[in-house]
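Study this protein:
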Amino acid sequence: MFTNLRAIALLSVLVLLTGGLAIVTVTQAPGVMSVSVNAQSATERPGQLLVLTLNRAPQPLTEADVTVTPAVAFTARSEANRLEVQFAEALDYHTEYTVEVGVAGLDNGAHTTLTERFTTPKASVVTLVHAADSPDRLLQHTLDPAKGVVGIGAEHSEVVFEHPQIEDYAVLSDRIVAVTLVDGGGVQPVLIDPATGAGEPLSSEPWPSLTGLQADAQTMTIGYLVGAVSDDSSPGHGLPKALLLQNLAAGTSLPRQVTAGLGESGEPIGIARWAMLPKFSAVAVERDDGAVYVVPLEHTFEAKAEPLLVSRDASVLGVSPAGTELMIEHDGHTVSIDLEAMLDGSHEGATSASLPERELRQRFEAQHPEARVGEICMSSNDRLAAIELGAARDGQTTTVIVDARDAQQRASVLGGKPGWCR
């Protein structure tokens, strides 16, 4: 009898608990199960996502439901139990961002505010140091220009590669490609692991000349110009100023020549200048005859997607920091080509423009008339600029980091050829 009563009582308690839990579940607001954001990529290019996965589906999300501090342009959307906040611009270095999202349950209308914080990494830049009595070195510097102290050096610098003579280099995500002088003559591209300093040659034989090295971390593709040679047995023979591309995503593939039309002899027309277009998996090339084309990587690697003519008489100047505009010079004017509009078939994407690097050079040289200014390039988020100063310290080239808004110096490091330019 008592046993039955105890069982009935216990069952009643369980029923009450279960009912209570069901009520809580039905009435509770959505909560966060997981968060995903690549803070490094968010400082390198616009369009990066903060993704929240919730434990229940929310009502449709709009920009009015989201606040980002410090303020940055963004779009917001929801699908099933997934919320996405997409940053329309690259974020600042070494900054804590707070994202507040107001959500309500789709099934019960219960409302709450979800708060997520993340901190972007500090800026870093690679420089090349030449020294008469020691091997050339590639140095990687970690910076904190946000401190606002004029003339500070890097918080941390380390040697990532040494070689008797380094001609050039380009940063490729977590790898570096260096152009090294080979014993006996010629140069060779080498893929370097900065963690170990070890290098792997990317060509079976040295090239007589190699210039214009650039890298695209998104597609793991590098490109470079090789000049004509007279020796029939040498690599590159018959390639007058050819642009070669190598895709390293699946290892050290063989280089492929970029073609944007053939000459009367049936050989590809030589390339004078070029620029990588990472956002569009393509390259822009300026042929020796002045014609400018956009050539998809598919055209080079898979014989697909034909080159697109941009201009019959222009010079390639570079690409905007956001990677969406091709900068060319035509009839003495700088012209910005909206690549998305052009690739969509619109001819309304060309506008007059100015190059941030040119304006910055003018401002900096006016402030420092005694300085011998070399290369100037913007950081990936367009907030800072690296300016190469020749022979500024004991015959050594230095690189200063300046605020792109006022050209005021924020840091100074040893070495030239800043990696942001490559």
User: Anything to note?
Assistant: Residues 13-17, 19-24, 229-239 have pLDDT under 50 and may be disordered. The helical segments are 2-27, 39-44, 297-302, 339-343, 356-367.
